[in-house]
Amino acid sequence: MPARDKRIDAYIANAADFAQPILKQLREIVHEGCPEVEETIKWRMPAFEYKGPFVGMAAFKQHAVFGFWKHKLVVGADRNDTAMGSFGCLKSIDDLPPRKTLVALVRKAKKLNDDGIKAVRDKTTKNKQRAAMHPELKAALAKSKKAQATFKAFPPSAQYEYVEWVAEAKGDDTRSRRVAQSVEWMAQGKRRHWKYQNC
After folding, report:
1. Pick from 64, 65, 68: which is nearest to 53 by CA?
2. What is the CATH number for 58?
3. Rounded to 10 degrees, what is the CA torsion of 45, 14, 37, 64?
4. 140 and 91, same structural domain?
5. CA-to-CA distance for 190 and 45, rounded, in angstroms?
6. pLDDT digits (tens, 9 = 90+) for 98-128
7. What is the pLDDT of residues 84-103, one digit of tens each?
8. Element of type H or E holding 8
């Protein structure tokens, strides 16, 4: 059995109580699906490598995450946008796909690395038109001086993260929720991806 990285043992031991069983189970699943995997720490989070980047996991205050490096090729294009990773916010073991499914996905990721398949990257074009601020977000910002001040102080890239998130909403209910969440976070001086800035 490959050596376990003691830094990952420590990471799991220091994680919130709810996250420890999630991380332990994910770790075992990765080793079951790819016995040759090597453990390490990258970006201060547990990472697993096999012939290159493979999978990673992390624990935060209220959720854990687990993600495949080649997410689109392993899981598909759909991604839960409530958190980084391949399966969104994990708050208990019940939030994980069945063990058999996860092991199969790990084996699929292993085969991709065995075959030298590269990760799929979204194509970008220089002429890509940026989304305009949705009127609902504009109106909500006008009602909150704190949020408006934060938005104006942000660099353009940080502003656009919010604008794009709201613009990408497929339904009115989703857009309204995102607008409310955006204004709440900006009123607190937070960027769109603030949860991951200090991880």
Report:
1. 68
2. 3.90.1150
3. -60
4. no
5. 22
6. 999 999 999 999 999 999 988 766 555 455 5
7. 678 888 999 999 999 999 99
8. helix 6-14
